[in-house]
Amino acid sequence: xxxxxxxxxxxxxxxxxxxxxxxxxxxxxxxxxxxxxxxxxxxxxxxxxxxxxxxxxxxxxxxxxxxxxxxxxxxxxxxxxxxxxxxxxxxxxxxxxxxxxxxxxxxxxxxxxxxxxxxxxxxxxxxxxxxxxxxxxxxxxxxxxxxxxxxxxxxxxxxxxxxxxxxxxxxxxxxxxxxxxxxxxxxxxxxxxxxxxxxxxxxxx
Length: 205
Known about the structure:
Blueprint: H1 3-10, H2 12-30, H3 32-37, H4 51-63, E1 71-76, H5 77-80, H6 83-93, E2 100-103, E3 125-131, H7 138-148, E4 155-158, H8 160-194, H9 197-201
Antiparallel strand pairs: 1-3, 1-4, 2-3
């Protein structure tokens, strides 16, 4: 452990060059990944040439809406009653700028359609799904619409926008917690390695 601080003091130029070489190698290996994935203006986390991405483009062009479900309402018909399906649909329709392509197990007269794939086989649960128009931030729109709809008995909400928002919030909280734990530990390790408070603080600046 004492060899490292001696190396830094005796050969600072060699140490700096070695650090820059390692950083350069890391950048050359991993730096191209976001550009490859984001080519043609695509999502940096999805390969634009993949079958999934091409399928999404076809769905969006044909429907004029996002390929992914922004909101999903699971309705317990035994608890809420069949009329709750229409109530959820009406609540979603109040947000035409944020929500489109609403699908529900209802027939032309607004009654439950027993043949709908959005109705459970035993007829006790129903799904109502909705997507966002193209060009609209799906996460922000979904969260905004969900927060504007009051709680309904027998209705549980989900969908890509709510899942993504929950994950983002959890990651943000976890990173803050990890930093609050890691920084003091790193400081203690650095002080032990460099044998001085100043030497331990400098790497953390």
